Amino acid sequence: MSESRAVGVFDSGVGGLSVLREIHARLPGQPLIYLADSAHVPYGEKTPEFIRERCRRIADFLLAQGACALVLACNTATAAAISDLRSLYPGLPLVGMEPAVKPAAQATRTGVIGVLATTGTLRSAKFAALLDQVGHDVNVIMQPCPGLVERIEAGELASPATRALLAAWVEPLLAAGCDTLILGCTHYPFIRPLLEDMLPASVSLIDTGAAVARRLEGLLAERGFLSGGSDDAPIRFWSSAAPQRMASVLPLLWGHEAEVGFFAG
User: Which residues contact 196 (CB under 8 A, 6 or more apart)?
Assistant: First the structure.
């Protein structure tokens, strides 16, 4: 696996492309494999058992494709499955996601933080433990966002319907005094421009894509898996749904067209 030095990145859908973007910007010479499990998006409404089974199948596939490390570019998948994957693949570099409560707690001036996330992430034991660790001195208001992932999957990043959904969720947070909003799903950075247009300039938006890229770089360096090239390395895309559906939104979310293979697992 180490010979290819490819990194496997996966999410319930195309949201993890926001993390892939950060990884590619930091490590342009690293080959990447991205898999969107779009046949089962969103994970936020699925059971932990179902998510763990999907993550095992996807991990097996990505390792068979030559991945030397995995990134769970999904907060819900991380909460449900990363411990399971670490038990199954001891020694494999694994990087997951978690809502950026700690940096938000450091950034807030009012002491009130809003978390926009899926229901699955907000209900998880992992998120509860995170709040217990770093949320004592701040008021964290959790806001599930049902339906938002599906709109982003469809490329509706600034439609009136998407704006209306966001307004219904964000306005109560602002009324409660939130000055910092955590984007607790990897899909949500794609609607960051819309949020910035809706929010006062005094409100900060925080996500963890760049931090994940830094963590991955450190783990690859420790194992000697870093590719030294500075040129763009190959990136392969896969989807468990109709590949043309993902291919149609890649120019919007990734910036250019690419071929998408079909993952039948």
Answer: 205
